[in-house]
Each structure stands twice: as structure tokens, then as C-alpha cells.
Amino acid sequence: MDERIARINALYHKSQNEGLTEEEKAEQARLRKEYVASVRANLRGQLDNITIERPDGTMENLGEKFGGKPRRES
Fold first, then answer.
1. pLDDT in tens, 21-31
2. How far apart are CA 18 and CA 37, in angstroms?
3. Could you count the other beta carbons within 10 Å of the beta carbon of residue 59?
4. Are the C-beta atoms of residues 63 and 69 closer than 8 Å to each other?
5. Among 11, 5, 12, 10, residue whose Cα is nearest residue 34
6. Alpha carbons 49 and 19: distance in angstroms, whole number
7. Above 60 in pLDDT, residue 34?
8. 24 near 14, Cβ under 8 Å?
């Protein structure tokens, strides 16, 4: 992932200095999309593992409660 982030940053700096070719623009868009998907998957994994304790002492796993619901596409 570090190499992808470095490449995204390199393409950004190149776009600011001299511009990008169509192939580089497509690569930049693809890399950004992959990065965002990775961040979302990591966040979803963290949220699915949250367990809360109710005032009555019971434990509720929010991943089990909400994890199976269809996700809204943005």
C-alpha cells in the first residue's frame, strides 16, 4: 500500500508541475479508487468488531447486528 500512496503522490506532484498524460490520469484515478476502497474496507472491519455494553450489563456486537445489512453505494 505504501508504494501505491507514493505513486499517487508522485502523480499529483507531476500534475501540478507539468501535467499528466491520459494514461497517467487513468492510472491516478485507478490508484485513488483502490485506495479509497481499501480505507473503506478497513473501516468496515473495525466497525464490525465493535461491541458495546448496555446499562443492564449485556454485550451487543454491532457487527453482528448491522454488518449483514446492504451497504449504500456512494
1. 999 999 999 99
2. 28
3. 8
4. no
5. 5
6. 43
7. yes
8. yes
What is the C-alpha separation between 65 and 52, in angstroms, rounded?
11
Nine-digit cell at 37? 476502497
pLDDT, one tens digit per residue, over 64-73 is: 877 766 555 5
Task: Identify the bridge partners of residue 60 per DSSP, sorted by sequence position.
Answer: 52
Which of 50, 43, 52 minimizes the C-alpha distance to 71? 43
Rounded CA-CA distance 11/33 in Å is: 14
CA–CA distance, 45 with 47 (Å, rounded to integer): 6
pTM given for the model: 0.69
| CA 22 – CA 17 distance, rounded (Å) | 16
Lookup: cell for 42:
478497513
